[in-house]
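Re: beginner question about structure tokens

> Can someone show what the tokenized structure looks like for a real chain? I only ever see the sequence side.

Sure, here's an example I had lying around. Input first:
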Amino acid sequence: MNFTYALLIVYLTSPILTRAALLGAHNVHYLEQDETYKFSPPPYSNRQLQIFCYQGKPKNVIHIWQSVLLKITHPTDNFDQYDGPTPEQVHQEYLDKKYSWSVNLFATKSKNMKLNPFNTSCIGLDSRDAYSVNLKVIRIDLWKVLCLVIGVGLFLSAPTLSHNTIFHYLCGVSFGICASFLILIYFISRIFPRKTLMYGVIGAGWTIVIYFLQILWDNLKVIMSTYQIYVIWYIVFTGTLSFILCYRWGPVENPKTKNLIKWTLQALGIAMIFFSSHYQEAAMGQIILLLIFTYLPRRWVMPFKRYWKKRFPPKITPLSNDEYYEQGVRETAKALSELREFCSSPQCNQWKTALKIKDVKRFASFMEGNSHLSDEEILEYETSIRGELTDDSTESEMSEDESS
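And the corresponding structure tokens:
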């Protein structure tokens, strides 16, 4: 009986002992900032699982745009990768794959990975070849800052962009370039017979399509460099066809559709702000401040603005004589141009305006682009200016004589 109990205890504790042996100190490596670990497997040995972990730091506002980059330098792609928050979960994933017949088509493998700087992250590597792992901490990730700036700009400019014709054309052309493969799927679907079984086959085949799209995304750089001419012609053809269709149907005119576009852009901007930092609480605080700044009623903001102007009044810089003259000429020409445009527009009733004007001929001359002043008025103005200058010079000479 004692021997039977001993065997039972060994049988029950053997997985724990095996896991503890595999997760020994020589297989789990905790990397620090700018640390590089080089692994060289012994010759004629089996593949060994090596687990690399990064212990996250406490959350702090000064680390809001911090990123942790884990770079794997491997001569080939002949290695297996396992991700998890702890070494135990990484090892469990390794065992599940090793002792199962399932094939995961969506397993990702990358040599450059961004880890969460505030959580513990582990990466398991299973390879026969030698490789090295480097951990780099980026204190201020410029890509995250750029994502935040673009998100805020997109959210604030959404009302303007939703009514912009050029933006509508750009979105239509971009969507046509990216979604042109849907036309191919449509023609292929016309070939299959419309039966319930075929719909199931097509639905199940989407997993293979997604798998090939994942391979395409992973090798996008190679495709762009190898088949550059074909990619350029594809973009030119689909872009031109999309522009023709957008021009034929015209930009969006329905106000409800414009509101949907505006809300979509704002949601996209909020998503970019949220994912611009691993510090999700701080990102949510930025979003709340942006929403308050955008949708807070003006009557609630005006008392604070008045108090601010009263507490810190703006500095007023007086204009010089030359600046005053230039500003007067510029603003007068601008106002006259706007007046001509209004009088030529359908909003102005020219006949009623002509009845209210004493000199219709002078008004017609002004509309044709001539000066709004007559020769007598210009002469009178120049005479008054000269008189004022003469009086000023006389007063200055008399003051100089009195002082002398």
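Each token stands for a local structural state, so reading them left to right follows the chain. Confidence is low (pLDDT under 50) at residues 1-26.
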